[in-house]
Design goal:
Length: about 160
């Protein structure tokens, strides 16, 4: 896994990286099929312009991810301008972990980027009392102000 990540981060020897990560996933003795190993494989496939294979691997990875893993994958989809995919990921995460700060703010982000500020505002307001610390609370309060003004919370 470390060698595959090194190749991925440096955009070198991607075929070798793919072979290494496959061993990390499927090797009979030490292989582990986890969100981390599968998402690394998907990232390598994306770098190799094998997007449909990468997307298929991520569908397999998502159920194995933690609430936070899935949230940050959704955020990466937003960054890649894959709004519909991001919203689906945020919705699935919310359905699995309702009434959590992370999933409520994820829904707010997804709905905001799609222009549904009214519904995004509902999720942001639900996230506010669940904020884990003062910094996150302040961030949500700023998001609420933006949404009330009809502004996307994903722009800075």
């Amino acid at each position: 896994m470390q060698a595959a990540n090194y190749c991925l981060e440096n955009n070198i020897e991607l075929e070798q990286a793919l072979a290494w990560i496959d061993r990390g996933i499927y090797f009979r003795i030490m292989g582990q099929k986890t969100f981390r190993t599968l998402s690394t494989k998907a990232a390598i496939l994306k770098k190799m312009n094998r997007d449909s294979e990468a997307d298929k691997i991520m569908l397999e990875a998502l159920p194995l991810g933690s609430m936070t893993d899935v949230h940050f994958y959704g955020r990466s989809l937003l960054s890649a301008k894959k709004t519909a995919d991001a919203i689906k990921v945020f919705q699935d995460n919310y359905n699995k972990y309702p009434n959590q700060y992370t999933t409520n703010i994820g829904m707010a982000r997804g709905l905001s980027v799609s222009g549904n500020y009214k519904k995004a505002l509902e999720f942001a307001k639900s996230a506010l009392p669940l904020a884990p610390d003062a910094a996150n609370k302040a961030s949500v309060e700023n998001s609420i102000i933006k949404l009330e003004k009809g502004l996307d919370i994903n722009t800075y």
